[in-house]
Amino acid sequence: CPIGAKKDEL
Amino acid sequence: MNVFRLTGDLSHLAAIIILLLKIWKSRSCAGISGKSQILFAVVFTTRYLDLLTSFISLYNTSMKLIYIGCAYATVYLIYVKFRATYDGNHDSFRVEFLVVPVGGLAVLINHNFSLMEILWTFSIYLESVAILPQLFMISKTGEAETITTHYLFCLGLYRALYLLNWIWRYYFEGFLDMIAIFAGLVQTVLYCDFFYLYVTKGGKDRKKVMLP
């Protein structure tokens, strides 16, 4: 995935 | 998911629950900054809008809902249910000095110029400074109840553990989010002074922690 795009963190 | 990420999330959850229980059991929100709690409610609301657009995992969704629910419950307890105990005179930090620059920064520096992404970035920047009204209030009154210091410790520990999580993810997954890392560093640094006092003055006969 692109840098910073995956928002699986809270 | 790694051990730092999980313990960070649990530390965050512990902080939120400690504060809720403290207010509920003592029937009082004395010494707690309602402004910081409103900022945290705004942080969760603007960050977790993706609840409506994407599903990541059951863990992710349930934690987001718990965080949002607890944030609004805390604000409700402070401003409605136990409003009489709210220390408004000492909660005098000007939040517009945080929200306006942070909003401007989110528009200028983000990963992608879209509404959802700007709101996510705004929430990351805002979270990093949202505790300032609380720290300002404690420095103004010069004291904090022990349970409040436990709350602050867990809240600060959470972002410090996230920093270790990001180092882990960089090495093992090649994952790098400079916005989150920069804001996380700022957020953790704001707690450093408090961490020092918490550890050094956390003696057995301590009732209250005095801050300079």
**Would you list the SSEs of chain B in sequence order as H and E?**
HHHHHHEHHE
Distance between the termini of chain A: 18 Å
Low-confidence segments of chain B: none
Please identify the structural class of chain A as seen in this structure: little secondary structure
Estimated share of beta-strand residues of chain B: under 5%
Average pLDDT number of chain A: 66
**Count of β-strands of chain A:** 0
Q: Which sheet architecture does the biggest sheet of chain A show?
A: none
- Give the uncertain stretches of chain A in residue-range form: none
Cα Rg of chain A: 6 Å
Helix content class of chain A: under 10%
Please estimate the helix content of chain B: over 70%
Largest interface: which pair? A-B, 8 and 21 residues
Strand order of the largest sheet of chain B: 1-2
Please state the overall shape of chain A, judged from the principal axes of the Cα atoms. Answer: elongated
The protein's oligomeric status is heterodimer
- Ends apart, CA distance between termini of chain B: 38 Å
Taking all Cα atoms into account, the compactness measure Rg of chain B is 17 Å
Shape of chain B: globular
Structure description:
The complex is a heterodimer of chains A (10) and B (212). Helices cover 0% and strands 0% of the residues of chain A. Chain A contains no helices and no strands. The N and C termini of chain A lie far apart (18 Å). Chain B is an all-alpha fold and 212 residues long. Chain B is 71% helix and 2% strand. Chain B has eight helices and two strands, in the order ααααααβααβ. Chain B has a two-stranded antiparallel sheet. Chain B is globular, with a radius of gyration of 17 Å. The mean pLDDT of chain B is 94. At the A-B interface, loops of A face helix 1, helix 3 and helix 8 of B.
